[in-house]
Amino acid sequence: MTYQFAQYQYLWLLLGVPLLIAGYGLYRALRKRTLSRLGDRQLVEGLMPSWSGAKGWVKTVLFSLAFAFLVIGLARPQIGAKLSEHKSRGAEVMIVLDVSNSMLAEDYSPNRLERAKLAISRIVDRLQDDRIGLIVFAGTPFVQLPITTDYVSAKMFLGSISTESVPVQGTAIGDAILTAVRGFSTESEKSRAIIVITDGENHEDDPVEAARQAAELGIKVYVIGVGSAQGQPIPMGGDLLKDKDGNIVVTRLDEETLQAIAKAGGGAYVHAGNEEFGLNPIIEDIRRMEAEEFNSIVFEEYNEQYMYFLGIALLLFVLEMLIGSRKSGIRLF
Question: Whose CA is closest to 262, among 214, 219, 221, 224?
């Protein structure tokens, strides 16, 4: 039996539990000091016979416990009920996505980058036993998601991508392709493909040579060109991006380079449209590859436990509200 938290980042909030208790203790200490300044503390407290100090601590402890159970519930504790070896047959696909500033151009709705992310998300929904990896690049590449069959994580990571995902601006397509080549699993030998989504502008290395090296290893390189030949300005911070001379920068699709990359990589080039972005025919071509068998160790079942913790938290919150701050006639506290 294995335990895990699906949203473990919420557990950091547990640090607030001792702070709540310490905060109340500090409040009580300051209160005593204030009362002592007013006169004899016992005499002053005698003027407030209905106030219960014990109930204050009980309410604080109950609230702190309720908060702790609430946080654990939000973190979604799960129990792995079955560990098994899972076999699947399919291809390995590395998607290489350009996140340079030029991808903010709005010749697609809402812009090039968001339209590309939407298309990738739809493709992930269609995958079954294939493995997928995700690399983002601008001036340098970054492995956003290693090769996996975890499509939920793939969509989660996809949603977090922006032009700030890579700190160095530029368009290093060649380096991104070589990074994708290194990202395939050692199990895969035949059914491997790289899909590059970019406008191809201002490439800083030799992407054609990188695609040729990939093809020599049996990896097909497909390219989807994003943008238009006439070009579009780049919105940046409520204004349009300008060069050092104050001229508005216009980003244009470099189809000639992208076609050369696809040819050298033994794949195909597609110009993305607004309706059908271009991924579908490429995925269909990849499906015709010889499927390979992959082995992986997975938990087949996870039992969610969060509802129990949230129920306990609700009960404790209700009890905390029912306990007043005054002494009761039956003197339970």
Answer: 221
The residue among 124, 103, 107, 112 whose CA lies nearest residue 280 is: 124
| Residue with tokens 């060069």, as numbered in its chain | 243
Gap between the Cα atoms of 128 and 86, Å rounded: 13
Q: Which of 319, 308, 323, 306 is nearest to 74 (CA)?
A: 306
pLDDT for residue 331? 46
Q: Residue 330: CB partners within 8 Å, gap ≥ 6?
A: none
Give CA–CA dist 168/140, Å, rounded. 6
Structural contact between residues 130 and 90, judged by C-beta atoms closer than 8 angstroms: yes
Are 1 and 80 a contacting pair, CB within 8 Å?
A: yes
Distances (CA, A) of 167 to 137, 203, 282: 10, 16, 30
The tokens of 211 are what? Answer: 């695609």
Q: What is the pLDDT of residue 264?
A: 97
Return the number of other C-beta atoms located less than 10 Å from residue 2's C-beta. 11
Torsion of CA 258, 264, 267, 271, to 10 degrees: 10
**What pLDDT shows up at residue 38?**
61
Distance between CA atoms of residues 137 and 197, nearest Å: 10
Which H helix or E strand runs over 239? strand 239-240
